[in-house]
């Protein structure tokens, strides 16, 4: 199978490239050559910039399948999908953020998508979800009946540049009392980039042209069970101290970015993002490695990063702030005991 990946050197892309090469497929990369250009020196690379309309390197080329891990603006997706429409399949990596009602539990792949409130405004940071929804539509319009759309939630594992999951294995490895968010049973969802890549490849090998929610694990997972799995896998001496959503809000602790992976399940705006229905993907072959393996491998990846990078984590709660909050919780407990 001749595979073209648009991107391929960021976070998810390299995991897909390695899986496809290991399976014996011919892989070509198209990108700007600016992100991790040292990767895959043995593979053919086409240079261009879809953001600038520079697709000349793709003209006259034919591939069996196209994988788009770098599409954020519908015009860019439309241009590449139209140019490569001779392919038998176009796989677009979207996001669960594309849904209109992210506060709803149990979102299925046919749930309504977000509408762009300012059509023509391509500010990805501000309109990430609506733009992803439009990208999906652009791909399908260019290659009707030949498009696979995969909507992952939080993608985690080695290579993650966001630190949104990485915070937890790093914090647990320090040991001691660990501030944890909400209630232990609050649902969380994530997917190891390697498992997502394997499912993407499976969809291409089988010619599966459907829309999937790609979130894990296989069964419902509470934030407490997630963190306990990390404690067990890492073999660390750490205890969890849960702080209610109300306490965290009172002290302006941000879900997702400071208390990472977690959002309050009752949040009417985003509470459903830990409860998305991935039954379709699981029925069609999505599989998950043990969560402990993701904890161990993510910590190993982190420990290999340069010291300067590790000194500036991009998500999670600062150590001093965590200590302050734990002290407030201890004081609150002491007051409650005295009153009793």
TrEMBL record:
GO terms for molecular function: aldehyde dehydrogenase (NAD+) activity. It comes from the Bacteria. InterPro entries: Epimerase_deHydtase, NAD(P)-bd_dom_sf, NAD(P)-dependent_oxidoreduct. It holds the Pfam family Epimerase. Residues 3-213 form the NAD-dependent epimerase/dehydratase domain. One of its GO terms (cellular component) is cytoplasm. This is NAD dependent epimerase/dehydratase family protein. It comes from Plesiocystis pacifica SIR-1.
